[in-house]
């Protein structure tokens, strides 16, 4: 067994990434405080070739040194858009035919493992502030609220862990039906 070198990984160039078919998902970052979390979301979005990231409210925008540190260039490959208000982003996404899913713990949430994405739908996945979570007004506009099952003593994941878990789950369910 040997580790593969970067040139053996057959990764897309930025130009090829931009032209490639995308996973029908937009990640919406609702008032994310940490620039490292923003950068990590870009990097994960690149890995799963998602359509775009919408940066909302206080969420920082590229170019920024702290975002670049964790994004490792993914701000160049992944399309992004900024909205002052997350509600406006959700309204636009709904007009474009996206089903909006907030990732949060609420009384009528659907467990992520029970949710089955459809091949013929586009999804907007909303991830909330590190302390406050997804804004209440945004939750009310969501078509569905998904919850990541947890069994330990803590009540939440770091946002970047949540982004990774949810994007992997969607990717696996959309492209590897045996899961």
User: What series of H and E elements makes up the topology?
Assistant: HEHEHHEHEEEHEH
* Rg for CA atoms: 16 Å
Query: Would you identify the CATH architecture?
Result: 3-Layer(aba) Sandwich
- Determine the oligomeric state from the structure: single chain
Give the CA-CA distance, first to last residue: 27 Å
Main-sheet strand order equals 3-2-1-6-4-7-5
Number of strands: 7
Give average pLDDT, whole number: 96
Number of structural units classed as domains: 1
Shape: globular
Q: What fold name goes in the CATH topology slot?
A: Alpha/beta knot
pLDDT < 50 stretches: none
The fraction of residues assigned to DSSP E strands is: 15-25%
- Supply the number of helical segments: 7
SSE layout and pairing:
Layout: H1 14-19, E1 23-30, H2 35-47, E2 50-56, H3 65-71, H4 74-77, E3 79-83, H5 86-95, E4 98-103, E5 110-111, E6 122-127, H6 136-141, E7 144-147, H7 159-175
Parallel strand pairs: 1-2, 1-6, 2-3, 4-6, 4-7, 5-7
Helix pairs in contact: 2-3, 2-7
What do these coordinates show?
The chain has 179 residues and is α/β, with parallel strands linked by helices. It has one domain (19-175): SPOUT methyltransferase, trefoil knot domain (Alpha/beta knot). Helices cover 35% and strands 21% of the residues. It has seven helices and seven strands. It has helices at 14-19, 35-47, 65-71, 74-77, 86-95, 136-141, 159-175; strands spanning 23-30, 50-56, 79-83, 98-103, 110-111, 122-127, 144-147. The chain has a seven-stranded parallel sheet with strand order 3-2-1-6-4-7-5, sandwiched between helices. Helix 2 (35-47) links the parallel strand 1 and strand 2. The model has no long low-confidence stretch (mean pLDDT 96).
């Amino acid at each position: 067994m040997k580790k593969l070198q970067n040139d053996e990984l057959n990764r897309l160039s930025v130009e090829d990434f931009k032209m490639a078919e995308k996973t029908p998902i937009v990640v919406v970052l609702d008032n994310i405080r940490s620039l490292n979390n923003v950068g990590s979301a870009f990097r994960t979005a690149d890995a799963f070739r998602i359509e775009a990231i919408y940066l909302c409210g206080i969420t920082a925008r590229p170019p920024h040194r702290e975002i670049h540190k964790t994004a490792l260039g993914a701000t160049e490959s992944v399309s992004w858009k900024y909205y002052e208000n997350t509600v406006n982003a959700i309204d636009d996404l709904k007009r474009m035919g996206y089903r909006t899913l907030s990732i949060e713990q609420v009384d009528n949430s659907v467990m992520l493992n029970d949710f089955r994405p459809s091949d013929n739908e586009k999804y907007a996945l909303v991830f909330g502030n590190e302390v406050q979570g997804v804004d209440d007004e945004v939750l009310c506009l969501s078509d569905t609220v998904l919850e990541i099952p947890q069994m330990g003593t803590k009540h939440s994941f770091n946002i970047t862990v949540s982004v990774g878990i949810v994007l992997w789950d969607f990717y696996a369910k959309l492209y590897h039906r045996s899961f």
